[in-house]
Amino acid sequence: MKRKDYISWDQYFMGVALLSAKRSKDPNTQVGATLVNKEKRIVGIGYNGFPRHIDDDVFPWSESDKLSTSKYAYVVHAEANAILNATTPLKGASLYVTLFPCHECVKLLIQSGITEVVYYDDKYNNTESGIAAKKMLDAAKISYRKFNGIDLKL
After folding, report:
1. Environment class of residue 63 by beta-carbon count within 10 Å: exposed (0-12), middle (13-18) or buried (19+)?
2. Nearest by Cα to 83 from 54, 107, 62
3. Tell me: the pLDDT tens digits for 99-112?
4. Which of 5, 37, 87, 128 is the most exposed place for a label (fewest CB within 10 A)?
């Protein structure tokens, strides 16, 4: 008889996103993303961090009023890295992400053909970025839902 206590596909893909977030060196916010095609195959993963060939010991990891001295000028979001790391076209793919995507990442998701977003946390809900992100997702008819599986904090 087969085992009955195995994890669901949602738990598996969100678990990969949570594990990927552990690669982030950001001291405040670690985000991971997993892209999954219609056949339930992982086709891209990413986490938030600096672009390759950028020395993360030289550039800032802190916030600042001045963009050039803030991490926000340099960090590539997990969703963007997952898209850039994708091994196949993303039409019809699902994104599992540990933090609801910002408005800039949503533009990339729409352009990439992603049709579903499953998120773990929405801590920026009702911010200007979050409102714009959801408005674009709704307009593009991309579904989004909160992950409701077991607690997978690794």
Report:
1. exposed
2. 107
3. 999 999 999 999 99
4. 5
The per-residue pLDDT of the chain, averaged, comes to 95
CA atoms within 13 A on the CB side of 26: 22
Angle at 148 between CA 133 and CA 145, to 5 degrees: 25
Please state the pTM of the whole predicted model.
Answer: 0.94
* CB atoms inside a 10 Å sphere around CB 80: 19
* Integer Cα distance of 100 and 149 in angstroms: 16
Q: Contact 12/145 with Cβ under 8 angstroms?
A: no
Cα 106 → chain centroid: 10
The Cα–Cα gap between 92 and 7 comes to: 23
47-68 pLDDT, tens digit per residue, is 999 999 999 999 999 999 999 9
What whole-number distance in Å separates Cα of residue 110 and Cα of residue 103? 11
Active site residue 79: yes
Active-site residue, from 39, 63, 79, 128? 79
Q: Exposed, middle or buried, 99 (CB in 10 Å: 0-12/13-18/19+)?
A: buried
